[in-house]
Specification:
2 domains; single chain; D-Amino Acid Oxidase, Chain A, domain 2; about 30% helix; 11 helices; binds flavin-adenine dinucleotide; alpha/beta; FAD/NAD(P)-binding domain; globular
């Protein structure tokens, strides 16, 4: 049997961020191994994400995590350069624009107060101000908009993940392509993991960074993790419309679009009542024709001529309690740390969560950003820490 101090299950954005922060932590002297079932990452949420970062959340912890995310990405050379080579993540600080109808204006304003209190560079705009700033936008039915002025935007999520991974490897982390099929637990401790090749590995600490595979892993350790896999489709389209200074726009309907290369990407989350657990990767093409296109065409003149060029489907790991990550150890197990249930905002949180996991392993508590509100206790108590700004 092999033995490692820290085993991370899942080597995409979260697992690789944790691996990097652990290996870079001077107070950590142990060994780290990342077990990843598919080195192509083709089905990981990280590779399939819309790769955007915003500070406009309702939960203070989410805001702070994304603020660190921006700082990290801006200074990526200081963190992730290997032999002078800096990961290319193409960060474009284009901002987010949340639009609200009269019904949503109160929530927008409440979020604005929380965000401003935490130093978010965000402005509330009236419909007239929106129109003056974005001539291409139809302000019909709008009461207000919230525009991120700096720190928000989009990047290459796969590039960020590979940057974490490459740096972690350069610092001595071992990556192994293997699927974890079983967790052997004795009392309050995980003793070993079983792999799909029949081998086992004993470990001091295990980090569950398995995305939509996290619930099965937790189940194997006797823990019920309230995370479901929910399909999200992304459509890339081109349009004759020219949209200067286009941010990532979120319509009051929940539909979003943003520039991507010479075109745009867009998507929308279905209503909770019509969002079953799902593991297939089939694109719902009717979603664009029947739901997205009418919304886009009404919001931007020129988008009525939008042509879908390609589309893909990925999965959010949705925390069904409150749409926020479940972070840290379960009260019943001392050496199994969770980082699951990101509900569509995990890529941008990967630097903060990776750092947090490293602190939990090395110090047994948070040193930089206190994320204890995101721990298991709220799940056990059925006390949601609800994030209302879910896209
Ligand atoms: C369509 C879409 C759009 C999104 N847009 C954004 C966005 O704009 N901004 C943002 O911040 N986030 C976004 N997200 C969410 C974000 O992509 C995820 O929250 C984040 O990538 C989660 O990273 P992860 O490493 O936890 O999970 P994943 O990227 O899913 O990685 C989990 C890894 O674990 C591996 N694994 C699973 N089970 C096992 C096992 N038993 N053994 C070994 N390996 C295993 C998998 O192969 C996978 O590589 C989006 C997601 C989707 C699907």
């Amino acid at each position: 049997m092999q033995s490692t101090d820290v085993v991370i299950v899942g080597g995409a954005a979260i697992g690789s961020a944790a691996a990097y922060f652990l290996a870079a932590q001077l107070d950590f002297k142990g060994t780290v191994r990342v077990l990843e079932q598919d080195f192509s990452y083709a089905r990981s949420a990280t590779a399939l994400s819309a790769a955007s970062i915003r500070h406009q959340f309702s939960t203070p912890e989410n805001i702070r995590m994304s603020q660190f995310g921006t700082q990290f990405i801006r200074q990526i050379a200081d963190y992730l350069a290997v032999d002078g080579e800096v990961p290319e993540v193409g960060f474009h600080e284009g901002g987010y624009l949340f639009l609200a109808s009269e019904a949503g204006q109160g929530v927008l304003q409440a979020n604005h107060s929380v965000q401003r209190g935490l130093g978010v560079d965000v402005a509330l705009l009236t419909p007239a101000q929106l129109q003056a700033r974005f001539a291409w936008l139809s302000v019909q039915g709008l009461s207000a908009g919230s525009l991120g002025l700096s720190g928000e935007g989009w990047l290459d999520a796969y590039g960020l993940m590979q940057g974490f991974r490459r740096k972690a490897i350069s610092l001595g982390v071992r990556y192994q392509q293997a699927r974890v099929v079983g967790v052997q637990r004795q009392g309050r401790r995980v003793q070993q993991l079983s792999l799909d090749d029949g081998s086992t590995i004993s470990c001091g600490v295990v980090i569950n960074a398995a995305g939509t595979g996290a619930r099965a892993l937790a189940h194997s350790a006797g823990i019920a993790l309230p995370v479901q896999s929910r399909k999200r489709c992304v459509f890339y389209f081109t349009s004759p419309a020219q949209l200067p200074y286009c941010p990532l726009v979120i319509d009051p309907s929940g539909a979003y679009f943003r520039p991507e290369g010479p075109g745009f990407i867009c998507g929308i989350s279905p209503p909770e009542s019509d969002d079953p657990e799902c593991f297939d990767f089939e694109v719902q093409h009717s979603l664009f024709d029947e739901v997205l296109w009418p919304i886009l065409a009404a919001r931007v003149s020129g988008f009525e001529a939008a042509r879908v060029q390609r589309a893909w489907a990925g999965h959010y790991d949705v925390n069904t309690l409150d749409h926020n990550v479940i972070l840290g150890a379960h009260p019943d197990i001392d050496n199994l740390l969770f980082a699951n249930g990101f509900s569509g905002h995990g890529m941008q949180q990967s630097p903060a969560v990776g750092r947090a996991l490293a602190e939990l392993v090395v110090y047994g508590g948070y040193r930089t950003l206190d994320l204890s509100a995101l721990g298991w206790q709220r799940v056990m108590d059925r006390r949601p820490l609800l994030e209302v700004n879910v896209v």
